[in-house]
């Protein structure tokens, strides 16, 4: 799994993706990888650009994709449908939404519901296998999604 972060550019508000860097002044930046390659096919590890990001918007890619192939990051609002008998069954049992977060005590990505219930990363893998997960947006650009949790 490639470790990747995203954050909103402090100046433009646009999302940038790459390596998380923290500078001596305490600011955070995302190093966006260069698209250039060396003659032997290896990446030269230079950054195309380094962008200062809003600290509260930083989220790590959790290594999983939704049903549409979209990367899931910490801070995303994700919906899922629980069906009777797996992902191919059409008998819907429940529909829900949650926020993808990280729990330091569990050292794991978790689902956060408004009632405080968590699901650990291991259960997350089960949800990805047996339920239909979809990224609806994130808590920064789409705060209205939190009202209907």
Helical fraction equals under 10%
Note the total helix count.
Answer: 2
Report the CATH architecture of the largest domain.
Roll
Shape: globular
Global structural class = mainly beta
Distance between the termini: 30 Å
Whole-number count of domains: 2
Strand order of the largest sheet: 4-3-2-1-5-6
How many distinct beta strands?
11
| Share of residues in strands | over 45%
Biggest sheet overview? 6 strands, antiparallel
Average residue-wise pLDDT: 78
- In CATH, what is the class of the largest domain? Mainly Beta
Q: CATH superfamily membership of the largest domain, which one?
A: YopX-like domains
CA radius of gyration is: 18 Å
Give helix and strand order, one letter per element, not per position: EEEEEEEEEEHEH
Structure description:
The protein is mostly beta strands. It is built from two helices and eleven strands, in the order E-E-E-E-E-E-E-E-E-E-H-E-H. A hairpin with a 4-residue loop joins strand 8 and strand 9. It folds into two domains: 5-56, no CATH class; 62-147, YopX-like domains (SH3 type barrels), CATH 2.30.30. It starts with a strand and ends with a helix. Helices cover 9% and strands 46% of the residues.
């Amino acid at each position: 799994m490639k470790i990747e972060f995203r954050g909103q550019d402090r100046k433009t508000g646009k999302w940038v993706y790459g390596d998380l860097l923290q500078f001596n002044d305490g600011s955070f930046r995302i190093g966006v990888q260069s698209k250039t390659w060396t003659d032997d096919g290896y990446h030269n590890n230079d950054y195309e650009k380094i962008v200062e990001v809003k600290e509260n918007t930083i989220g790590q890619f959790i290594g999983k994709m939704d049903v549409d192939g979209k990367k899931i990051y910490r801070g995303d609002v994700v919906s899922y449908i629980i069906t009777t008998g797996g992902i191919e069954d059409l008998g819907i049992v429940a529909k829900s939404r949650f926020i993808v977060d990280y729990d330091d005590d569990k050292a794991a990505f978790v689902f956060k519901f408004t009632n405080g219930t968590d699901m650990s990363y291991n259960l997350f893998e089960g949800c990805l296998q047996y339920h239909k997960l979809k990224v609806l947006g994130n808590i920064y650009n789409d705060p209205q999604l939190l009202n209907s949790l």
